[in-house]
Each structure stands twice: as C-alpha cells, then as structure tokens.
C-alpha cells in the first residue's frame, strides 16, 4: 500500500490466527482429529488465508484514497470484490471437493485433508468480507505525508541502495554474472558434502541376521548353528525378544 502504514499490515496479520482458530473449531465439531493429513491440509490452506484479505483491503484503501470516508469505503470496497474473492476461493475448494465423496482407503487418507482445506478457505473468505472491512473502517486514515513517516524514510534508503546496486550491475554485466554464478556454486556445494536420501533413516529397534549354510547341510548341523546363534543373541542386554525363521533355499 502506498502509505506503508503499519496498521494495514496488522489488519492483514489478524486474519491468519483467526482463520486458523476458526478452522480448529470446525474440525472439532466435525469429529476430525488433528493428524498428519489435517496438518498437511492446514499447511495448504494457510497459503491462501491472507490472499482474500489483501484483495479486500487493497480495494478499500483505493476507495479511501478517492475521497470516501472510512465506513463507506469499507462497505463499498468489500462489496465490489466480494464476487471475485468468492469465485477464487470456491474454485480452489472445487479442486478438493471430489475427495470427500470417494470411498475405500483413498477416503481414509484424503478425506480429512480435503475437509481441512475447505474449512480453512471458507473461514478466510468470511474473515475477509466481515472482519477486515470492520477493522479497516476504524483504522484507515488519510495518507500521511512521506516526509513525516519514519518508515518511509527507511524505505526510501533501502530503495535508493537497491537502485544503486541495480545500476552498478547493469553497467558491469560481466562482474554481475560472475557474482551470480559464484553464489550459485557456493549454494550448491554443501549438497555434495551433506548428501541426500529419499527417506531419513529410522531406528525401528529391530535388526535381522541372515545365515547361509552350504547346500546339503543336514538338519542336525542347521539346528546346532541356530542354537549357537540363539546363545549369542541372548547375551546381548539390549535384546528383549527374538525369533528364528528357517528357510530352505531352492
């Protein structure tokens, strides 16, 4: 926003915790537990929680700049974009809605995720059309002159610094490319040291010992080897239980 007022940022920030708390309430009354799937749904929904609020608040501020008072700008601003933000939210919900009607193991896994995403988006829509206009009507004031705004002074200094760096980069393209490539190499280099894996190792508290005997070994020889193995394993203090499984290799 042009006035870079801290109050506008606080108004948007309010929508996130309120939407999350309201989503928890809907999950509670829907008998949906908070597990890894609902947590994933919440993570997906949070990405759009502030989108609707930002659109509504931007439109309110635009009308406020055009001369409307705070209350009229809040009412008209919310009305003008209500259909747009509703359509955007419902379009996203429509992507997850079919998961609610599936059956079997797919329903067990994804139904709660779909409900969580839908709940969070519906709540964010309600917050953007009700709470945000109310807060805006009480908080937005006429644009403050930039020279009297301390934040604007800091913002201008950052902007001027960025412009000087950008101007230097455009005038020294070779050095700019070299620095960019060097940063890229430095960023990738730790990957070769740390390595990677698809799944992190998990300590399941179990281990498996495989013994291969020569082909044609008698039953007595096999039992003797297994008995010695049982004695060795039983001496390990960390072992609580163990089992022996015999397989004949064909």
C-alpha-based Rg, rounded: 31 Å
Number of helical stretches of at least 4 residues = 8
As a percent range, the share of strand residues is under 5%
Compressed to H and E, one letter per element, the order equals HHHHHHHH
Strand element count:
0
Output the CATH homologous superfamily of the domain at 6-144: Multidrug efflux transporter AcrB transmembrane domain
CATH domain topology of the domain at 6-144: Multidrug efflux transporter AcrB transmembrane fold
Structural class: mainly alpha
Please describe the topology of this protein.
Elements: H1 6-29, H2 36-46, H3 49-65, H4 70-96, H5 105-139, H6 150-171, H7 173-194, H8 219-234
Helix pairs in contact: 1-3, 1-5, 2-5, 3-4, 3-5, 4-5
Describe it:
By secondary structure, the chain is mainly α. It contains eight helices and no strands. The protein has helices at 6-29, 36-46, 49-65, 70-96, 105-139, 150-171, 173-194, 219-234. The protein starts with 5 loop residues before the first helix and ends in a 16-residue tail after the last helix. Mean pLDDT is 80; it is low at 143-148.
